[in-house]
Amino acid sequence: MTHMPKHGLPTVRPNALAHKTPEQRWLVEHRWADQAVGIIGGEPKCGKSLLALDLAVGVAAAVPVLRRFAVNRAGPVLLFPAEDAAHIVRQRLIDIARAAGVDFDTLDIHLIDVPYLQIDQPSVQERLLQTVERIRPRLLILDPFVRLHRVDENVAAEVAPILAGLRQLQRTFNTAVVLVHHARKGAARARGGQALRGSSELHAWGDSNLYLRRTGERILMSVEHRAAVSAEPVTLEINPDRGAVLSIVDALPEPAPQRPSPEHRILQVLQAQPGPLNQRQLRELAKLRAQTVSTTLARLIEQGRVVRTEAGYALNNT
C-alpha cells in the first residue's frame, strides 16, 4: 500500500511492490515496445526516413512493418517530416502502401502541415500537445531531431527538457514517440546508441531504439530495448522495382568474429592452471592490462565465480 503523506512524496514498502514484471507488450512485434519513446538512428542516406514511413503505414493500416513484423496495436499516426518535400513524402507513402497491399487513400496518417516545428519553444510544445490530444495517435513520428530545435545537442541540460516534454506526451496520451536522429561523423565502428550525435541523454531516453548502418549496398538494422531482450539484426535493401521501399533480405551477413571477453579469458587461464595465480601472472597469461584484470576480477568475485586466497586467485568450485 502506498503511503500518501500530507507533505513530501508518497512512499511504498518493498513487500507491496509487484511480484513480477508485467508481460511485455509490443506496438511492432519485437521491434518497438507499446507506448515506447525512442530513436531511429543512423548515418545519412541509410533509410531512416523510409523506415519511419514504413512504421507509419504499418501502425496506421494494421499491416506488418517491412512486411515481416506484426503490428499489435494499430491506430492513427501523427507525422512531421521536416526535410522532405510534400510530393516526395506522398510518393513514398504510396509506394510503401502498395508494397504492403493497403489502400493509400485510407491511411490513418496525419501530417503536421507547418514549414518548421521548434519543439524547444513552450508555445510550440503547447500546440503539439493540443494536436496530440485531438488526433490521439498511437504513434508520433518527428523526423529529424536536428530540424526540431535550436539548442546545442551536445549539452545535456539543453536536450533533456525537450526529451522530457516528449516523454510527458507519451505518458499523458499513451502514444509511442519516434525521433529520427543522425549518427555523428566518424562513428562507423561504434555501437548504435553510442554513435548517435549529441548528448548521451538521447541514447538513455529511448525505450526502444532502431539503428541503421550501411554495409555496402545493404543496410543492417539492429534494435535495442530498455525492458526486453533485443531481437537479432536484419539486413535491408531498397528495391528500385518497388520505388522507395525498404525490404528485408533473408540472407544475413556473417557476423564479424568477436574477441573473447576479459571475463572469459581470465576464467580460461584459471581453468588451465593447477593452482592460484596472482594479478601479474593473470595479466601476462590473459594478455590484458592491469586495470582490466583488476576490475574483471572484482566482478568475477562478486558473481561468485572466482575466489581470492592467500596464494592468489582461483576458480570457485564450491
Question: What's this, in brief?
Answer:
Helix content is 31%, strand content 21%. It is of the alpha/beta class and 318 residues long. A hairpin with a 2-residue loop joins strand 10 (208-215) and strand 11 (218-225).
Description:
The chain has 318 residues and is of the alpha/beta class. It folds into two domains: 24-249, 3-Layer(aba) Sandwich (Rossmann fold); 262-315, Arc Repressor Mutant, subunit A (Orthogonal Bundle), CATH 1.10.10.10. The chain is 31% helix and 21% strand. The chain is built from eight helices and 15 strands. It has helices at residues 48-61, 86-100, 122-135, 156-173, 201-205, 262-272, 279-286, 290-302; strands spanning 2-3, 11-12, 26-28, 32-33, 37-42, 77-81, 109-111, 139-143, 176-182, 208-215, 218-225, 234-238, 246-249, 306-309, 312-315. It has a nine-stranded mixed beta sheet. A two-stranded antiparallel sheet has the order 1-2. The chain starts with a strand and ends with a strand. The mean pLDDT is 90.
